[in-house]
Amino acid sequence: MPDSPGGFGRWLLMWRRSVFVLLGGVVLLLIFVLTRPKPQPTVVPALLEPSAGTLLDSSSLTLVGSAQPNSLVEVWIDGLKVSLIASDEAGRWRAEVNLSGPGDHLLQLKAVDADRNLLAESEEFSLSVKGPPLSSTGTAITAPPDGSTLGSGIGVFSGTGPVGRTVAVLVEERVVGRVPVRPNGRWTFAYDFRQSGEYNVRARAIDLQQNILSESNIVRVRVPEASIGRTGCPCTLRLSTNAPEATFALRRESGEVVSSRSSSYVAFTNLPTATYRYTVEAPGFKSHEGTARTPDNRALSVWLEPLPKPRQ
Questions:
Q1: Which among 194, 172, 176 has a CA at the least distance from the CA of 242?
Q2: Is 12 within the bounds of a domain?
Q3: Band of the pLDDT at 136, cuts 50, 70, 90?
Q4: How far apart are CA 298 and CA 156, in angstroms?
Q5: What Gene3D superfamilies does its record include (predicted)?
């Protein structure tokens, strides 16, 4: 501190100026933090035309949807990426696609950045194409087509089978899951391959005693190395079970319900990285509770044991 009174006054004046400058800087910093625009959450792509569940006359169609303006949208059909389009300034996009044949098809939309990193994804939509009546006994895999290269390590298979029966799905002749055939003669199953390579997939219709009733042709699929990596979330968790009229409930570790769906195959989308508890219940079957962690678990098959029949 200066010794003379004049020096002390000059020092005090400089000190006050320094404090004012410092306070001014703090105020400007607060104004910047409080007024800067907050990052907007990614808009989940939506399908506008045709509406989900539509029965189509032709497998070739035009999809119309919405997304974040000037963004990229991937179109996935039956587990395969079929198109990459850009939305316009109003957030509208249009894509010409082919559903590959009669029957039910699952469509999903994914928002990605310029490096194709996933930002958000829609629910799975079902679209159906008119075709000849389904065989009452035949079993077939209708999607993906034979020789397909999967866009991810998850294969979403769908096909036909005898109504009221169960279809066992085999990868390299090993049963990896069982799903019931729906009243419309269709079934859906998802499998996590986890390793790259080429795989033979087959479906068999079985009765309660596990006797083979009918069998599909082999469908060959290729899983590329690049599709195996466990990237970050948002993620989709696909669950399937052998029991018809099943209900899946997904909960966070805290017990909070994320979603509940009634179907033998469900897909929970836009899940953050976390550990989840799921329960599966169906009339006439023992309930099941399990744990899944995203993104490590992406497709799980749950076998429910039938309840013993009451003695007469």
A1: 176
A2: no
A3: very low
A4: 11
A5: Immunoglobulins (2.60.40.10)
93: β partners: 65
Question: Domain containing 162: what range?
Answer: 133-229
Report the C-alpha gap between 190 and 111 in whole angstroms.
Answer: 21
Q: Kindly tell me if the per-residue pLDDT of 134 is higher than 60.
A: no
pLDDT in tens, 72-128: 999 988 777 888 999 999 999 999 988 867 778 889 999 999 888 889 889 888 888
CATH number at residue 275: 2.60.40.10
Question: For residue 282, which of 249, 236, 238 has the smallest C-alpha distance?
Answer: 249
Peptide bond into 132 cis (omega under 30): no
- Both tokens of 214, joined, read 């009918």
Residues 200 and 171 sit within 8 Å (Cβ to Cβ)? yes
Q: Which of 18, 21, 69 is nearest to 45 (CA)?
A: 69
Q: What is the pLDDT of residues 288-306, one digit of tens each?
A: 999 999 888 889 999 998 8
141 in any annotated domain: yes
Tokens for 281, please give them.
């219940």
